[in-house]
């Protein structure tokens, strides 16, 4: 019997994978961790930067500990983070997922109007602060994302 209070957790030297009812594969190389989800849901959290990603069936996540890079890919989207160079790349990523990543990375709280949460964006940000990123997204999409002060 699955006990929701005691989830199955896989810990590698470079990431933590928390199973929330699924079929998945984890490969660990010493320099990083790869996750492939076949069914269900898994939470993927690299060590540094410690950012949590919800991965569902058909998704994969790759973390390179030496380079501090993360890539999360689904059949429709791709999101990548290069923490050392402060680079974020989004391909067809919903604003709700962009906001979730930015909130974690910058330790901030963002608000997005409900009707804009599923809007998607494809862009790359290099060494920009949170306010600059939000300003560019809002100007590009005519969205109304706000940073809580």
Assembly classification:
single chain
Mean pLDDT: 93
End-to-end Cα distance: 44 Å
CATH class of the largest domain: Mainly Beta
* CATH fold-level label of the largest domain: Jelly Rolls
How would a textbook summarize the main sheet? 9 strands, antiparallel
What is the total domain count?
2
**Based on helices, strands and strand pairing, what is the structural class?**
alpha+beta
Overall geometry comes to globular
The helix content is 10-25%
Write up what this structure looks like.
The chain is an alpha+beta fold and 149 residues long. It has two domains: 1-75, Jelly Rolls (Sandwich); 93-149, no CATH class. The protein has helices at 95-106, 130-141; strands spanning 9-11, 15-28, 32-46, 53-56, 60-64, 69-73, 78-82, 87-94, 110-111, 120-126, 146-147. Strands 1, 2, 3, 4, 5, 6, 7, 8 and 10 form a nine-stranded antiparallel beta sheet that branches. The longest helix has 12 residues, at 95-106. The model has no long low-confidence stretch (mean pLDDT 93).
SSE blueprint and pairings:
Blueprint: E1 9-11, E2 15-28, E3 32-46, E4 53-56, E5 60-64, E6 69-73, E7 78-82, E8 87-94, H1 95-106, E9 110-111, E10 120-126, H2 130-141, E11 146-147
Antiparallel strand pairs: 1-2, 2-3, 3-4, 3-5, 5-6, 6-7, 7-8, 8-10, 9-11
Features:
alpha+beta, 2 domains, 11 strands, 149 residues, Jelly Rolls, two-stranded antiparallel sheet
Summarize the structure.
This protein is of the alpha+beta class and 149 residues long. Helix content is 16%, strand content 47%. The protein has two domains: 1-75, Sandwich (Jelly Rolls), CATH 2.60.120.1440; 93-149, no CATH class.
């Amino acid at each position: 019997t699955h006990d929701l209070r005691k989830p199955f957790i896989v810990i590698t030297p470079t990431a933590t994978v928390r199973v929330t009812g699924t079929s998945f594969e984890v490969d660990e190389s010493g320099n990083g961790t790869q996750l492939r989800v076949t069914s269900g849901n898994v939470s993927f959290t690299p060590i540094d930067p410690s950012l949590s990603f919800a991965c569902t069936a058909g998704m994969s996540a790759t973390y390179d500990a030496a380079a501090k890079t993360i890539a999360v890919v689904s059949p429709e989207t791709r999101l990548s983070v290069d923490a050392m160079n402060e680079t974020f790349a989004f391909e067809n990523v919903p604003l709700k997922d962009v906001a979730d990543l930015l909130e974690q990375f910058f330790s901030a709280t963002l608000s997005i109007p409900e009707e804009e949460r599923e809007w998607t964006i494809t862009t790359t940000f290099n060494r920009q602060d949170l306010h600059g990123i939000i300003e560019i997204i809002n100007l590009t999409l005519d969205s109304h994302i706000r940073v809580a002060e």
